[in-house]
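It would be a great kindness if you could assist me with a short task in structural biology. The matter concerns a single protein, recorded as an amino acid sequence and a row of backbone structure tokens. The record follows directly beneath this note:
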Amino acid sequence: MQVNLKMSAEQPSTLNITPEMLAQAKAKALAAQDDHPEGDTIRRQVEFYFSDENLPTDLHLLQQCGGRKNIPVSISRICGFKKMRSYKPKSLVVAALRKSAFLEVSTDGKTIKRKVPLQGKTLLDEDFWKEEDDIAFDPRTRKPAVYPVPLQLQQKNVYPEGTSKNMQKPTGFEETYVEAPITPAEAEEEDRMYDEDKPFTERIELAIQRFKQKRRMHEMYSKVFNKLMRYGGVESGPRMYQGLSQTEMKEMDAEEIARATAVHKVPWDREDEKQWAVDFVEVGSAFLSSWYPAYYGQAPGGIKTACQVLRSLYNYLRYHRVCPEYDDQLQAALKMCDIAERELIKVDAAGLALPGDFNTSASTLFGGAHAGLFAGDKSWAKEAEKVGVNVSEMGLREQEARIKFNTGVAALGTDEQQDLIGAPSLQIIKNGSTGLEVTAIILPDDTTREVYAVQSETVRSKLGHLEPLGKLVCKVWHADDCDEWDLPKDRYPYGGPHKLDESREFELWVEERVLTECFVGMKMDACIITLEGNITILDEVKQAYCSFYTWLPNELWMDNKPKEVRWLAKGLPDYEEDVEMNGVKKDGQDKIQEDDEFDDE
């Protein structure tokens, strides 16, 4: 059967062939070939590389294959040799090398080696040239090898995910980084830039830009640095007319380059001492203890990075004598960074561990924050367990909570408190929130350990091992914040409501495991329940803070986005109503322009 196909006049006479289609067709055509068009030349060249004439004296290739070890060499590296670069594609080069009777290609086509390993000595052997003493040569033409000759890796370096080779270079934020020595010319130049007669705002603005030029600002460092600048009252943003050619920059000195390329700037109003104060310690402490954990968390890696950025900046300011009048502050700020790197990680662990099993048990029994959380005996909880949701770990059974509470009172309580164990109910005398600062940590003594050892044997089948209690001694602490209270100053000198006695000291009973996470000076925002018999319960810990916790109004500045000032014509003496373009007003109605020269009506 014959079918006549006829192209209509409306159809185009040319075919729409894209470059992608051509590339795919070419690739299929090459794949169908089993040899490179210049396969013989490729085989001769590569066989010469591995031949007995060339290989013993080819130090570079010997470092790849190991000489007599006959280690497979990467074909990609062979294709990078000068005489092999013109042979493409690589797939056909591999196909051509597979036909060699002298060489062997791996099954995956990535490496190549000799079928018969090399015999005899090579440049890798120290006595190689001793056997060639009878050959005349110019000693200047031979470069002696350094023995033992190291072999080169055949695989590429594998970098961590999200990084590249350039990101492995020193950034200037390493712990062991040391500032490079300053030449006399540089010292003279910096003396002019950081002259003490200049205002501090001008010097610090130059130093910030110079610091950025000397550091590799990867994303994690740039994020912390920019937030620190914003927190410290330094604004940032693109400046006008910053496009500079290399020729223009060669004619500038260091100060002019820093000013021309600066992104961060210190506004002129920062010189007002009534509104702004220079305090490296307070700003650094508040940034690390209050703002940074609230927005970026307390992961150990992030905390270490943040502390190292501040530490690097302070060291730079001291080394280059940017502000010698604040050198004492910079020294104190460096010590603060060391403390922050230790405490911020411990604070996170302590906040997760507190309040401990004893205080959780007491809170469950006396209507605290943990009361009524246990739902393991509910019917819906059993249905949830069938699908893999275990809710029995949330909260405590009342029986389990009573055993742990009574054991703790029996081990650490006074005689009066121990007499209350058998009481049907205990009354709550006080219940309130307050800030606490740890003043002492007392680990369990031998007597307490013996009591808990005996009790653990009794309830081991039901509750497992009971942890002995120690003591966490705290005093009342007030945190400064931005909350405003309309309260009498004579009754509330700190401005906010504090229901608990400010001069009181609390002795809290906490498990030894939890005490190891705490440290003297740690601060907490907690809820305290006081039972009859003066039994103090740590009901809930809302937030744990480091010893140098500081809050500054700068945190309000971080979220400040001032609106752009717009000068409106309305209300001015010579006010005339403006007309929108194309005769359209803001409300969308058309306005006839009477003075339009193209209006024929």
